[in-house]
Amino acid sequence: MIFARHSDSRCQRGLTFVYRYGFELDAGQLLGALGPDLICAEQLWGERKVIIGILSRRFEVQIGVRDGELRFMHRMSATLDQRESDRAGFEAALSMASPQPPPESS
Amino acid sequence: MSNALQVQMSSNGRRSLGGEALVYHCNFYNYWLQKTILLVDGLDMGGVIHDAAVASAYACLKGLDAGHYSSAVKLFAKLGFGLMDLSQIDADGGTVTTSVSHYGQCLSAAAGAEFARPQSRFDAGFAAGASAWGHGRMSCGFEGTVQACMSLGASEGKISLRGRKPNSEFFRSYRLDQNNDGPVPPKTWGGLDQAAVDEAVARLQLVGNEEGLIPRFGVMLTQHFAHFYNRLSFEFLRRMGDSGMRIAGEHLLLDAGYRCAFHTFGGVFLSPEWESLMSPVVASKSDAAHAMASIASTLGWGRWRLMEVNERRAVMRVYDDYESLGYRSMYGQATRPVSFLAAGGLGGLMNLLYLGDILSGPELDSAYFEKVFEHPEAFTVHQTQSIAMGHGFSEIVAER
């Protein structure tokens, strides 16, 4: 696993997951892998630039909330099955966005 | 229309839309306040929740002079209440549905148990007020009844509306003048100017998303009607007073303020937003207290200023205190202070910082709440001045 995930156990139980990753994340590649319907934006949190992707009524991704950390937040409208499927799809995209190790030479 | 729904923020921190004062509060406070005022049977506080929502929604839409019925639906979503469909309402009433509802869906996280009664009385009141406005009736022209609520497991909320007779004594919201006629809040912290904090928080765009909710700081926020909270709190106190239980009522409202502080301030302290905005300028617990007061000052609660803060004591003044201003507008000059949210907020803030070491990043769970807020040396608060009683600012002292 190239990232660590934990559920935010506070007030929005089951809706928010925090991912920590130890590599240089290409936010554009990650958001691109989440499909053409994703709406993308940026917000400034003080001096920090946070990149946001929203798939309507399904989920929101906030990239760069801390160094090496992003938040994945399900929408309330998404069904439990949809949430599971969306999270799996997101984790696959996050794995793909990590730098690939060079192929082993024979 | 989207511009017409732009919330105005005055230089003294008042937020308003259509002349209605707005304040941010989270699902935990919304749950605890509603639970608190419904604790005592026989006060008909369920009717107060409904009618306070009617009066607030009606006044806001009327003040916006929005013209089109659809603006009510947009307003509901923008303020973080969810998604409401009013299309089946005609001049005689009909059925309203909510596919997403803050009150229907987001209070369960705060309750930690199944509900026995529907939680969406606010939605019913909002629908009734909006429909009365949309059909040119007096504000009390419709009454809403919750037929199905997601808090009880329904797949969507259903509210039936029917006409009701005019009532000249029906609740009326008040309007807060945007001009500041009170004393100017002093600068008490060198970390960040209030204007910079206002701007930084504004950039976070704390408005309803595409499903009409505001999930931020680990809570679900609403940008709510100040009149609604004040009417609930002070009508509850009035009715408790009629039964000789005024002081008990004050304690209950104070407790709701503690819960608000625990979850809202706790959530903010632990959020990456706090780290980004405030960590660069916070070097101590007293800095953190000042910084949180400056954030609270952007939420429409009035300008909070800590005149003194240390590990044993804090003195806070609230300028443009929304609770006191609301009380005075609705019930006249008070004989006792009424800033229960601010008092609970200060006590909670001090407990989090000086007893709970919130900056070390603890889990905000019930065990932590009990450890900190039921600690034998927890801060106690008392109100020493009150705008509602005619003073220039409200003042609260927290000590342990």
Q: What this model shows, in words?
A:
The complex is a heterodimer of chains A (106) and B (400). Chain A has helices at 27-33, 80-96; strands at 3-7, 16-21, 39-45, 48-55, 59-66, 69-74. Chain A is of the alpha+beta class and 106 residues long. Chain A has one domain. Chain A is globular, with a radius of gyration of 14 Å. The two termini of chain A are 25 Å apart. The mean pLDDT of chain A is 90. Chain B folds into 2 domains: 14-163, Muramoyl-pentapeptide Carboxypeptidase, domain 2; 198-203 and 245-399, Muramoyl-pentapeptide Carboxypeptidase, domain 2 (2-Layer Sandwich). Chain B has 14 helices and 14 strands. Chain B has helices at 27-37, 45-64, 70-78, 102-106, 108-111, 121-134, 194-203, 226-242, 246-269, 272-278, 285-296, 322-331, 340-355, 366-373, and strands spanning 8-9, 15-17, 20-26, 82-85, 89-90, 93-101, 142-148, 157-163, 214-216, 219-225, 303-309, 313-319, 380-385, 394-399. Chain B has a 5-stranded antiparallel sheet with strand order 1-2-3-10-9. In chain B, strands 4, 5, 6, 7 and 8 form a 5-stranded antiparallel sheet that branches. In chain B, strands 11-12-14-13 form a 4-stranded antiparallel sheet, covered by helices on one side. Chain B is globular, with a radius of gyration of 20 Å. Chain B starts with 7 loop residues before the first strand and ends with a strand. Chain A binds chain B through residues 8-13, 15-16, 43-48, 54, 56-57, 60, 65-66, 69, 71, 73, 75-77, and chain B through 26-28, 99-100, 105-106, 109-110, 200, 203-205, 209-211, 213, 215, 218-220, 263, 267, 270, 272-273, 275-278, 280, 363-365.
Instruction: Write the H/E string of chain B, N to C.
Output: EEEHHHEEEHHHEEHEEHHHHEEHHHEE
- Largest sheet data of chain A: 6 strands, antiparallel
Number of helical runs of chain A? 2
> Could you give the order of strands across the largest sheet of chain B?
1-2-3-10-9
Q: Give the amount of beta strand of chain A, in percent.
A: 35-45%
Radius of gyration of chain A from CA coordinates = 14 Å
> Could you estimate the helical fraction of the residues of chain B in percent?
40-55%
* Count of discrete alpha- or pi-helical segments spanning 4 or more residues of chain B: 14
